Amino acid sequence: xxxxxxxxxxxxxxxxxxxxxxxxxxxASNEVSAGPLPSVVEAITRAAHDVxxxxxxxxxxxVETLADRLEVTTDRIAVGCxxxxxxxxxxxxxxxxxxxxxxxWRSFEAYPILAxxxxxxxxxxxLTPGHELDLEGLLAAITPATRVIxxxxxxNPTGTSLRREDLDNFLRRVPPEVVVVLDEAYREFVxxxxxxxxxxxxxxxxxxxxxxxxxxxxxxxxxxxxxxxGSPEIITALRKVYIPFSVSAxxxxxxxxSLSATAELERRCAEIATERTRVREALLELGYEVPASQAxxxxxxxxxxxxxxxxxxxxxxxxxxxxxxxxxxxxxxxPEENDALLKAAASFQG
Length: 350
Ligand code: PMP
Hints:
The protein is of the alpha/beta class. The protein has two domains: 7-35 and 262-347, Aspartate Aminotransferase, domain 1, CATH 3.90.1150; 38-259, 3-Layer(aba) Sandwich (Aspartate Aminotransferase, domain 2), CATH 3.40.640.10. It has helices spanning 38-48, 60-70, 83-94, 110-117, 135-140, 164-173, 198-204, 232-240, 249-259, 262-285, 306-315, 335-346; strands spanning 25-26, 77-80, 100-105, 121-126, 146-152, 179-183, 208-213, 226-229, 297-300, 318-319, 321-323, 327-331. Strand 6 (179-183), helix 7 and strand 7 (208-213) form a beta-alpha-beta unit. The longest helix has 24 residues, at 262-285. 4'-deoxy-4'-aminopyridoxal-5'-phosphate (PMP) binds next to helix 3.
């Protein structure tokens, strides 16, 4: 007799990770291509001496450092094993079977998986024809069963960002018992002064939680650490469903060290933003449609040509991320990596 696994898991789509192909440029996972800063490597090395001990469950030093930076009290911050774990914790903390999780689509591909694993119903709201979040559509999707709305800004994979004023108006109209998750995994790459600051919005509304990560701008994707900022009520609930010790001591110490190197990291983000403009303009020049991006990637809505573009890039030793039948997401890398991508894009005949 075989073991009994939940029958609905069979229908669950698997999370697809960007491929790593030795010898190819990887522009598939929205990582930064520059390696960790020397000061962060030093912190990791020091922390390695203590790995026979369990980490600090409360991540005290990291939470205190973040609280200081963000000018919030420590009861308004929870850390998680990557911000994806915090997305899961939010769903677990709010949804019972049959409850609804509303999110834009296309957006971060973990949302539907996390909703379904929790036994909740997924409610997808299509993007606008301009590849932006449809805030009116998200509002219209709310029912008495809605517990969570994910609002990803800048949106993965389209890169588009909301305007502060539009998000404010939206939040005013969401019932106060519904948790709004502002997924700001790419916030540090934003250059638009009109873009919202999710942490600021969490001060004004108790149902808003901002999620940020050390995986992207801070270059610590391999260490798995993110954080949530929100009302003590939400943060307490997130801590209740936290898998004990899931943020390692090494990750905690590296994150603290990164927070002391913000000037260097901001410089890196500014370089990526400059490259983002260059890559987008070059792609526009080649005739591609490219929505304006505020993240460290750009989106090519190639529809049925997406798989062919992906294959053509792979032949030219550039790994991008295709979403079949929809589009291709391309991470903005170092200048020479972007040059390789632009060369491949120029010779694509699909
Ligand atoms: N949110 C969004 C929008 C993302 O794109 C990602 C990573 N792809 C995450 C959350 C999760 O990142 P991490 O778990 O590495 O913090």
